[in-house]
């Protein structure tokens, strides 16, 4: 299994709602990533988990709360979002966060399209 | 800090043309460089990955080259088809950043029938 899956594919939420995005991989990867991508822009890194611990937080507002309950699963909990948070949210995984192996890279999921009304 | 630039930002060509997309990066200390394809509202599909010790990689009608010393990569698409219409993203994996990726801004390609 060489896939990263993300659910849901689409999500519409109001500014007072609480929702969660889910990402799963069964490749045995120990690093997982959340990205936010606005239209016509490259992905922007939000969070990185390594061995289920948060390693990097790119100064993301607290209305985004990541969680890594086990080595295969990564969640992004959303609360009190703003319309400007509407974007494509991408999850990725890699064998490790820190490695000198030149063939290694990140594997991306299909994304969740989020619309905040 | 590594910076990645892609030129042009958008490109429109008639079907059948051979075309070249450009990517430049500021720091040659990289593990690899990767070209991704992204369809609107979709995830990233890896097209080609070139390790720092390699000069090029080929897959079907796609050929990617890497000149690490000059900080440049090109993606050559032969005999373009309307189905090639997408955004193409270049990303480098810097040597001082583990498995982190630095992305270029992308080139939006439209191939007209």
Short description:
Chain A has 117 residues and is mainly β. Chain A has strands spanning 4-7, 10-13, 18-25, 31-37, 44-50, 53-57, 64-70, 73-79, 87-94, 107-108, 112-116. In chain B, the strands form two sheets. In chain B, strands 2, 4, 5, 9, 10 and 11 form a six-stranded mixed sheet that branches.
Give descriptors for this structure.
heterodimer, A: 117 residues, mainly beta, 7-stranded mixed sheet, 4-stranded antiparallel sheet, 11 strands, B: 113 residues, 6-stranded mixed sheet, 0% helix
Question: Your description of this structure?
Answer:
The complex is a heterodimer of chains A (117) and B (113). The mean pLDDT of chain A is 94. Chain A has strands spanning 4-7, 10-13, 18-25, 31-37, 44-50, 53-57, 64-70, 73-79, 87-94, 107-108, 112-116. Helices cover 0% and strands 55% of the residues of chain A. Chain B starts with a strand and ends with a strand. Chain B has 113 residues and is an all-beta fold. Chain B has strands at residues 4-7, 10-14, 19-25, 30-38, 44-51, 56-59, 62-67, 72-77, 86-94, 102-103, 107-112.
Secondary structure: elements and pairs:
The complex is a heterodimer of chains A (117) and B (113).
Chain A: E1 4-7, E2 10-13, E3 18-25, E4 31-37, E5 44-50, E6 53-57, E7 64-70, E8 73-79, E9 87-94, E10 107-108, E11 112-116
Parallel strand pairs in A: 2-11
Antiparallel strand pairs in A: 1-3, 3-8, 4-5, 4-9, 5-6, 7-8, 9-10, 9-11
Chain B: E1 4-7, E2 10-14, E3 19-25, E4 30-38, E5 44-51, E6 56-59, E7 62-67, E8 72-77, E9 86-94, E10 102-103, E11 107-112
């Amino acid at each position: 299994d060489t896939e990263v899956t993300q659910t849901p594919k689409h999500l519409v939420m109001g500014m007072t709602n609480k929702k969660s995005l889910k990402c799963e991989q069964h490749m045995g990867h120990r690093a997982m990533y959340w990205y936010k991508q606005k239209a016509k822009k490259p992905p922007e890194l939000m969070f990185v988990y390594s061995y289920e611990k948060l390693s990097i937080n790119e100064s993301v507002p607290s209305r985004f709360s990541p969680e890594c309950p086990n080595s295969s699963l990564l969640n992004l909990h959303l609360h009190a979002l703003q319309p400007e948070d509407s974007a494509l949210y991408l999850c990725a995984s890699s064998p490790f966060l820190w490695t000198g192996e030149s063939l290694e890279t990140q594997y991306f999921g299909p994304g969740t399209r989020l619309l905040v009304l | 800090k590594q910076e990645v630039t892609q030129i042009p930002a958008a490109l429109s060509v008639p079907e059948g043309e051979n075309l070249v997309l450009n990517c430049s990066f500021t720091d040659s200390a990289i593990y690899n460089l990767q070209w991704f394809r992204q369809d609107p509202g979709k995830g990233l599909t890896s097209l080609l990955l070139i390790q720092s010790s390699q000069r090029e990689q080929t897959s079907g009608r796609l050929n990617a080259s890497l000149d690490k010393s000059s900080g440049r990569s090109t993606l050559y698409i032969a005999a373009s088809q309307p189905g090639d219409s997408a955004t193409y993203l270049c990303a480098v994996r810097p040597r001082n950043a583990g498995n982190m990726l630095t992305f270029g801004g992308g080139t939006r390609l439209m191939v007209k029938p």
